[in-house]
Amino acid sequence: MDRDRIAEIAPTADPVPLRRNRDFTLLWTGQAASLFGSQVSALAYTLLILAVTGSAAQAGIVASVTLIGTLVFLLPAGVIADRHPRKQIMVIASLIQMLAGITVVPAVVSHHVYLIHLAAVGCIQGMASAFYQGASRGATPRIVSPEQLPEAMAATQARDRATTMLGPPAGGALFDASRSLPFALDSASFGAIALAAAVIRKPLDPVSPPAREPLRRSLTKGIRFVAGQPLVRTFAIWTALINGLLYGIRLTIVVLARNRGATPFEIGTLFTISAGCGLVGALVAVRLSKLAGGRLLTLISSWLLPACTIGMFFAPSVWVIALLGGITGFAIMPVNVIMISRITGITPDHLQAQTGNTLQLCYQGLASFTPAIFGALADKFGVDWVIVFAAVIYALIAIWLQFNRTLGQLGDKPATTAAAGQARRSSARPRHGAHRKGWAK
For the whole prediction, is pTM greater than 0.70? Predict the structure, then answer.
């Protein structure tokens, strides 16, 4: 990490705990509200379309259009988020999502629900999400100190797991009470994150923005950074493969559990247990990384995936499947926290959005296709053989990581902590004082 980067992010005094960091609390709380609303409405959209049309295929169209809208705009959104005021982008993107979502409420109330309308809302919200996510990735390193990044990322992962647990049941309950309620709540949640972003006090933009480049070259800058950094490149490949398999095997597990006699409620509980274990893994991630080190945790997680997957093949009941899914959910979260915090620390401030959006493109791109692929394989060869196939792929990934020398970087002292210490030792340099003052608030 170069001196300019150190000067941009290093505080002069010990940072306040995250729970007393006003700006981080605002950002975390607003995003929690928004993610909860999105989880609520995701189920509600499916239920609404099934109630109106009875078509599962049409229900999948809205989800696919939303995801495609995000994926197509990830790279240009990353460039814009790194070039222009991040706070403004976060506020504008959230307001666009709010205004698009609120149009669903009168449509539901008046019983004029059309697939083209819902698909358009999903597409608009997906595109706006690409811009918000890019800008928010650059915001976190600006409002927390370098040594607090692992803790901040752990809190973020825990928040995501909690909303995944609580959102779908709440969406179902609200839809039963009134079909328009989930969509009203989702729109209000976008207003909450817009307000939270608007009142953040600390500057979120790079101190020294880079020189402008032609848009065509800028679009690939994040890709070139990811490809040129061994640890970031390894994480991109790992997340693309793991998330692709997880999304595909999720559908397979539903079929497997149903074949073992599980009820719809038990199948839903299965995924709630997995998300709950992931939440616990995120909460203890920082402590585990200090005890075992990043490389060892990554290898343990990688070998647990094939072991637990093949265990599902022999599982006698849905609850054993749930336990094995929970173990993998618990194991993956600390690795995510370690990797994301390290990558955030080594990424230049003016590339945060582009790098983050490039990584998201990696782990969502393959996941967009694997459910259909795994479903077709299950129909042709049977669900048990698909489970074995996934276990074999997981094992090959674990072998690759076992001999990957890049993971040795995770066993070292985190670069962000070392950089922060170096910056404090040089805190008497006058040319850094003006910016550090902003961090000391």
Answer: no
